[in-house]
Design brief:
Rossmann fold, GMP Synthetase, Chain A, domain 3, 2 domains, 12-stranded mixed β-sheet, 4-stranded mixed β-sheet, about 35% helix, about 25% strand, binds zinc ion
Length: about 425
């Protein structure tokens, strides 16, 4: 019961604490919290012993977190022990046990390297309080049902089960048909899942096989493309599809009532490494993670600032979108030598612009994936008509002329993707990767 009380306490704190009105005020609060947090980290995490200012800390990445796992966490938990524990839980699909009071989870790395995260009881309650304060429609004292589709359950999420709030977990490794019946019976108020799953449910609803009408749909874990967002809005008759941008390294951004993603600058500090005038790679410092500190962690993602901010008036940095992984920037030989990098968004637009008077897709609004292979050539996985293939080829040629690169051969193949893997519409495969 202590935990329910903690969740409620944090919910009330995040929901009703006075909001900063300006960027300057946000900055000042961050400085204060950061000073306190770094004092704790420098005193408890062996790898950071004695460091003072944020600038003194090295930038970190996944390799650092893995290699320094034992010396980084402040609970004295060894990597091998944690990994054994987490793998066992996943194998049994039994996620309630804890390792000396600590939640241990595996993160689904897209790059193949598995990350391990540690979260304390208090951190889990704080996280749950924060998420509920951000998203729960109406009062926390009302009854709410949440359907949560995800790859693995974790007692991190069970922190949200507080009696009146019923969080129902749907394990993605199980049969979707069984889920449909359960989902229909639950008739959830809030539906949470990755875009590829939400799109399947939207399809079922449109086909009349599922009749749920949630008040809120929240997209997690994968990049939500604009066209997919539009399909979800239409299927669920909602003005906004909410998004949570979260990874092992922290709860980084969430949507406001206008559907704009804002960086959660009340719990994380983001340094921006600019790639052009509005695209940047975030370097994250989370000032709430004490057990496994995340300090100056360089994420592999490309974020795009929203020019002019957001109408909601929040001083927290507004994003136009999450464009994708830095690894997925395509690379082509330049027309005048050298190499040209092309951001995923420009590639995506080729499919959008290809649509015209002639039908481009064999059926419905189509799914596609485009992959740059290790040899540099492109593979388009989509069920396109002949005219559609020609149009996509033309758009790619136009892009290559505009951006001065040599377009490699393009193969057109039927749409398909491995189930269970994250959906990536634009992906670059590098050497040595499977
Ligand atoms: Zn906003």
């Amino acid at each position: 019961m202590a935990r329910v009380f903690d969740v409620l306490k944090y919910y009330l704190y995040y929901k009703y604490r006075p909001r900063e009105k300006s960027r300057e005020a946000v900055r000042r609060r961050q400085e204060r919290r950061l000073r306190r947090h770094l004092a704790y980290v420098a005193g408890h995490s062996p790898v950071y012993r004695g460091l003072k200012r944020l600038e003194d800390y090295p930038k970190t990445d996944k390799a650092f977190m893995t290699e320094q796992f034992d010396r980084l966490n402040t609970a004295g938990i060894g990597r091998e022990e944690a990994e054994r524990f987490a793998v066992q839980a996943e194998r049994d699909r039994e996620f309630s046990p804890k390792l000396r009071g600590v939640t241990v989870g595996l993160s689904s790395g897209t790059s193949g390297q598995r990350g391990i995260f540690l979260v304390s009881e208090k951190e889990a309650a704080r996280w749950a309080g924060y998420v509920l304060a951000k998203f729960l429609p109406g009062s926390i004292l009302g009854r709410h049902s949440i359907a949560f589709f995800m790859r693995a359950d974790s007692n991190l999420y069970q922190a949200v089960n507080t009696g009146r709030i019923q969080m129902c977990f749907f394990d993605l490794s199980k049969d979707m048909r069984v889920h449909m019946e359960k989902l229909q019976a639950l008739a959830p108020e809030i539906l949470v899942g990755q875009p590829s799953v939400l799109l399947v449910l939207a399809g079922e609803k449109k086909a009349g096989r599922l009749t749920l009408s949630p008040r809120m749909v929240i997209s997690i874990a994968e990049v939500l493309e604009k066209e997919d967002e539009a399909r979800l809005r239409e299927a669920f008759c909602l003005p906004v599809i909410h998004q949570v941008y979260q990874c092992t390294e922290g709860f980084l951004a969430s949507t406001c009532c206008f559907g704009t993603l804002h960086i959660n600058e009340d719990i994380v500090r983001i340094e921006r490494e600019y790639l052009d005038e509005k695209r940047f790679v975030p370097v994250v410092t989370d000032f709430e993670r004490k057990l496994q500190p995340v300090i100056r962690y360089r994420l592999n993602d490309i974020l795009v600032e929203k020019p002019g901010g957001c109408l909601c008036g929040s001083p927290h940095l507004a994003l136009e979108k999450i464009e994708g992984r830095e690894d997925d920037v395509f690379c082509f030989p330049g027309l005048t030598g050298g190499e040209r990098s092309v951001f995923p968004d420009f590639i995506r637009r080729c499919f959008l612009f290809a649509e015209g008077e002639e039908p481009v897709w064999k059926a419905g609004p189509g799914d596609y994936r485009i992959v740059q292979r290790a040899d540099g050539t492109l593979a388009v996985y989509a069920d396109l008509t002949k005219a559609g293939e020609r149009r996509v080829q033309e758009e790619l040629s136009r892009l290559s002329a505009e951006s001065s690169f040599v377009l490699p051969p393009v193969d057109f193949l039927p749409y398909g993707r491995e189930s269970g893997r994250k959906l990536k519409r634009v992906e670059r495969i590098r050497q040595k990767e499977m």
